Amino acid sequence: MSGIELIDWKMKKMGTFKLVCFDLDGVLTVKDDSWSYIHHNLGVWEQAKEHRKLFFASKINYQQWADLDVGLWKNVSLDKINSIIQQIRVRPHIETVVQELKNRNLISVILSSGLSFFTDYVKNKFGFDFAIANSPIIGENNKLTGEIHVSVSYNDKDSVLQGFLTPYNIKLKDCIAIGDGENDIPLFKEVGFSIAFNPKNEFVAKAADVTVADGDLLEVLSIILSRL
Question: Of 3, 81, 150, 185, which sits with the fewest C-beta atoms within 10 Å of its C-beta?
Fold first, then answer.
């Protein structure tokens, strides 16, 4: 750690934090992509894989990618989707982490470029205060229409969280963010403190204030509490 990094870290530590923001896939779950989990279970992974290639080749934007992917699920019942997402393994100790944050009057938020029916499920099961994600549209007979309302794109978590915070008079510097992917980096740069949890690559690790590699959520909790 250089002298500049040390000064910056100390300045961040002095802040009073009000909110903790968690990525979902790969942070609160063992699997790092709920989209692909659903695709595999519905037997449409080969088509979805081509959509992924188009996005990362900059041939389509995130809205178009989401439209194409959710279009593969058209007429699938919400009950079927819910039965799939409830099979996704979540990490141990989530409830403990959330309760400890509540005990200290910290707001807990799930912020994901994934799917609202999964973020809502985890939010309600473990007691998070809020969940922000993308909402597939449900039509007649409780079936997916193949359309989706995108609230969180790939690289805009910082602006999405800022928009959420404004009515509460909370600033991004009042927040702690935990993530594992490159799409968390813009948020890491703006919040008061950031934790790369089992980061996918060195770019994610370097963008965060602290890295927890091969750790669990209790270690993340310990770091959060040490910064309060």
Answer: 3
Contact 81, 38 (CB under 8 A): yes
The pLDDT tens digits for 166-208 are 999 999 999 999 999 999 999 999 999 999 999 999 999 999 9
- Statement: residue 13 has pLDDT above 80: no
32 contact partners, CB below 8 Å, separation of at least 6: 25, 26, 180, 181, 200
Cα dihedral 96, 99, 100, 102 in deg (nearest 10): 160
Three state DSSP letters for 6-38: HHHHHHHHCCCCCEEEECCCCCCECCCCHHHHH
Spell out the domain ranges in the chain: 3-31+90-226
Work out the average pLDDT over 56-66. 96
Q: Which CATH homologous superfamily contains domain 3-31+90-226? A: HAD superfamily/HAD-like (3.40.50.1000)
